[in-house]
Design goal:
Length: 148
């Protein structure tokens, strides 16, 4: 390998490393969002069901114990809490779906894996740089939102 080829290989590896950092950052971001929104849905949805069901089963004695004189009855307080929890669950689920968080996470993971494979092929297996550049161009076309 001549000096020009070695320099091209090094420059391309630097480009790959930079792209890999971007893809890993996107993966981390979407993994956090995916987990956070799903946990929010599960926990708050469950909590609202427990509150509503619990007060329905225990009835007036518990609701009466929650009364705040001159402000609200226990029933109103529980209904208000359940409404807030349910609304938050709805918003969280809608954000998760509308922004296609799971799809974006899957794409970021796929891109990261492809970049790591490409990097490994060049550094360990000595893959042809021209083929690697062609594969990288395809990744740029397939994942512009991740690698841009």
């Amino acid at each position: 390998m001549d000096d020009n080829e070695a320099r091209q290989r090094e420059d391309f590896l630097k480009l790959l490393q930079s792209s890999l950092q971007k893809a890993e950052a996107q993966t981390s971001k979407y993994r956090g969002l995916d987990t956070g929104l799903l946990v929010t849905n599960i926990v708050l949805g469950g909590l609202s069901a427990v509150l509503a069901g619990g007060i329905a089963v225990t009835g007036e004695p518990v609701a009466g114990a929650l009364d705040v004189p001159n402000v609200a009855s226990g029933w109103q307080i529980i209904c208000f809490l359940v409404a807030i929890l349910a609304a938050t669950t709805t918003v969280s689920g809608s954000i998760h779906k509308a922004f296609r968080i799971t799809d974006r996470l899957a794409a970021a993971i796929a891109c990261t894996s492809a970049l790591k494979s490409l990097q490994l092929g060049i550094t360990v297996a000595g893959a042809d740089i021209n083929n690697a550049v062609t594969e990288y161009k395809q990744l740029l076309r397939d994942h512009p939102d991740i690698l841009a």
